[in-house]
Amino acid sequence: MPALDDNTYYMLQVRSAASQLTPNATQRTTLIIAGVYIIVIAILWHVPYLNWIIYPFKLLTVGFHEMSHAITGVLTCAHIHSLELDPDEGGATRMSGGIPWITLPAGYLGSSFIGACLIACGFDTNASKIASLVLAVFFLITLWWARRNVLTWVLILGMSGLIVLFWFVAGGVALRYLVLFIGVMSCLYVLWDVIDDTIARKVNASDASAFAQICGCFPSQVWGVIWLIIAFIFFAVGILVGLAAFKESSAQQKQDSQHFLPVPGAKTNAADSLPALTGLLVTLTSTVVTMLA
């Protein structure tokens, strides 16, 4: 077999990447639904009374924000005193110690990263199941930190019930679209919040203002733009990972989901879950490595 020159090899790699990122019929449907989510969220966001429909999901994204602060605080040896949400869509994470120049931007960037991961998982039913289990772990950790905050308990218990309910609908298909919606909502909330707090108007108590005081390099508006760009990148990467990693059709996803954490009562062999989980993790890992190479 003749050796390929560098130009031919490069063209083949580009063609392979383009083919991998070209959406199939199922993925096109997912992209259309994600687009509808964006339009609906944008409308409901600013319409009085109707905005109560997405109010619980706004609070959830605030929870992701505060949870990201807390997790990075733990990773930088901080002591987490409490985590709170308030009805005005605000929140606070009280900690001592840690590294502020890491924990401060972690709120916006962490919640946008979580949203991007959920968007990627929203392209596949089994991946959405795994995402739900990961969220359940995060919920438990958050409940411990927010054990004295009633609103946080009500929110997490309500969201947990909603996830369980959607798990039972159409063999987990409804769960996939719920995970996709939460991901889109989280990313949009971060984008809007960064613009509102740091670019459109300067909020002295914002994370960007506190970060600007610590670093001293740029004003808070500049850091807001930087964080906004990073959040956009996370959003785009979440979609690209979903397109590259999950090429199964709806029929294939339905068949696979019957063998991986199936709805109770479904006829399946529980031992089939382990190979399905292993294959899914290998697919995700290889996709991310390929995109980073």
Shape estimate: globular
Largest pleated sheet: 2 strands, antiparallel
Give the helices and strands as they follow along the chain.
Answer: HHHEEHHHHHHHH
Order of strands, widest sheet: 1-2
Mean of residue pLDDT values: 83
Helix content: over 70%
Q: Using only CA atoms, what is the Rg?
A: 21 Å
Number of strands: 2
- Tally of individual helices: 11
Structural class: mainly alpha
Q: Enumerate the spans where pLDDT stays under 50 for 5 or more consecutive residues.
A: 268-274
Assembly state of the chains shown? single chain
**Strand share of the residues?**
5-15%
| N→C terminal distance | 26 Å
Put the structure in a nutshell.
The chain is 72% helix and 5% strand.
